[in-house]
Amino acid sequence: MHIFMKHASEVQQNKQPSARSINKNIVLDLPESHTIHETPNKTIQDTVLTSESRENITSEAFSTRLHTYVLQFVSKLYTHYSLSRNIIQMLIDDITVILKDISSLLDAKLSFINGDDIATNITDFQNMLALLQKPFQKLDSEYLRFKYYEESGSLIKPVTFVVGEQCVGVDTNDGAILDVKKCTASFIPPSLTLQKFLELPNVYDKIVEYVESLNNKDIICNIVQSQLWKYILVEYPNKMVLPLCFYYDDFEINNPLGTHAGISKLGAVYFSIACLPPQYISQLDNIFLVQLHLATHHNKFGNASVFKLLLQDLKLLENEGTTITTKQGNKKMVMLQYLNYFYKI
């Protein structure tokens, strides 16, 4: 699945946000058995700290306790072997940014406490502190997180569709029987992925800027400079047309040398925008997953069944395009792939 979210910190003039930068600021895909938001067991130290929470603490004592809390948290991260060191560093950096933003809000509120309406400002400040005790109240489970992202339009869930049916043997109390099993695949519409990606801050502007710069070059370094592409543009006057590259690969997710090699072999479809600036086009962040299916289903049911949803979406992009919202307003985008769909078709 793809998750896209707009952040003010990503609106930079000289940096194009990527799918990785969006994802890493939203969801940490940690195993359920190693989640760090679980409530730790109550210890003697926790009880002591709670009993002292009402005392008039000095800045030096606060600094000592803060260092202790942070040290315990970081040490706990290193006990989870599934977390790599770069992920731990990313967590620390992101949490630091969040704490800085929160402290700035609290500091701004403190400046109004000595104003005219002192009682109201103190109550507001206390309510703000109460919210900090449960910052993940509306996002404390994966269900709530995905529900929020889906309702806000930031999450694109994969669509499961049937590619065919096959008979499988099933053991019952009366003996072995044949049962009809539906064979499925997962599909993420490229039209939705493109819409969300192009609406990210600066992405569309960077693409347009690069395409316009290619028109002033004599050396052909991109498909949009070719005669073939100029011929395609004739059919779409006064519209922005972007070329898409689609790829297909088979890969083995288990031991390829084992006795069960090939059983779990998957087929993957992914795509990229061919006219991204050179510094971004080869980044894995900007290559988007479209579909996953079993390679055996591909061989058994054929291209028409396995790629039917993808072909429908490509025709939609070619004939109707997709509309995105930018700083300049709504722009009609028509997407085209200029290569064959896949090497196997």
Short description:
This protein is an alpha+beta fold and 345 residues long. It is 41% helix and 21% strand. It folds into two domains: 2-151, no CATH class; 185-337, no CATH class.
Polypeptide structure, described:
- By secondary structure, the chain is of the alpha+beta class.
- It contains 12 helices and 9 strands.
- It has helices at 19-24, 44-51, 59-78, 85-110, 118-132, 142-151, 190-198, 203-214, 227-233, 278-281, 295-306, 308-319, and strands at residues 2-3, 155-156, 159-172, 175-187, 240-252, 265-273, 288-294, 322-326, 329-337.
- The strands form 2 sheets. The chain has a 7-stranded mixed sheet with strand order 3-4-7-6-5-9-8, with helices on one face. Strands 1-2 form a two-stranded antiparallel sheet.
- The relative contact order is 0.11.
- The model is unreliable at 7-52 and 340-345 (pLDDT under 50).
Q: Could you give the distance between the termini?
A: 25 Å
Total number of helices: 12
Number of separate strands: 9
* Residue-averaged pLDDT: 79
Overall geometry = extended
Order of helices and strands: EHHHHHHEEEHHHEEHEHHEE
Count of domains: 2
Tell me roughly what share of residues is in helical segments. 40-55%
How many whole angstroms does the radius of gyration measure? Answer: 26 Å
Major sheet summary line? 7 strands, mixed
Q: Give the uncertain stretches in residue-range form.
A: 7-52, 340-345
| Binned strand content | 15-25%
Structural class: alpha+beta
Strand order of the largest sheet: 3-4-7-6-5-9-8
